[in-house]
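Let's practice the habit of predicting before peeking. Look at the sequence and jot down your guess about where helices and strands might fall. Then scroll down.
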Amino acid sequence: MCFDLHIHHTAQEHDTRHLSIINPATGYTVYSPWQDPGILTELCTYPHIFEPIPPNQSCPFHPKCCRLERQFVCRFSGGGCPMRVKYHHFVDEANGETKDISFLSAYFGYNPSILLIAGWFFKAGVELALADKYRSQIWQRLTEMARCHIDGQSQITVDQMEKKNLDARYAHFTRIINCSREVLGQFAILWDLNTGPGVLPPRPGSSPEPLYNEPLSSRLRIRANRWVKRDESQFYWPQLIRLWPNFQAGFLPIGDDPSIVQFGSMQTTDQINSNPVLYLNSQDPDAGSKLEEQTLARPATPLPSNPE
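Done guessing? Here is the structure:
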């Protein structure tokens, strides 16, 4: 598998990559390079690129404020991998950063499909972060409504209808959070099982102490955003999660594109099923529950390698 590498030459404040919670126990959150970034909607008030931007380097995500380079990076000399995974790397030259993509070699392995595990892992973290964000906004509104009731400022009919809708959406996003956390754990275990020479580098955010994750994040050029202690369990996540049977058997959902994040639009939000990460593009609303209801058959094993 090759990297479809997008190098964004722009300011750090224009980093519109999705936030991804890659460790729900510590809340370790990073800017995900594995998904297409959001589109910069605000008009840039001052230039970051002083020279004219060639038409072939214009950036659809950061119009007029980014010079976009695109290239394919492959471990094979011919670059003939049948699959390519997107990777968005940001370079802020004004702050002294230079273009250096040598860190990508840490992901080159014998089985190109293994690289997809990283993309899906970060995508699950994006889904978790988005659901957590939306649920927090709903909780804030519910709190405001409760305060209005206490102050005697309620509009009973309107508030009851709104509260019913908000309660339903709060429960909806809670289900997504729980499912995203489960899926994130599945890919965290798969990553750990496939860490080492010829496969993947150590999993980012794996340490229960977020500050200890910084050296690895720096080596892989992963930009951290924040971390908030969330889970007081004495057991480290994701050790207690059991792999789903198809993952134990070495099957991966190749049809799902880890670079696409559809979560957020009104149409997609209403269509999210009980397993929003693996089956975001699925037409079967029961696909996720069918998979999760299966019984474990045998101990987890790493995915098979392909030396070719």
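How did you do? The first strand starts at residue 2 and ends at 9.
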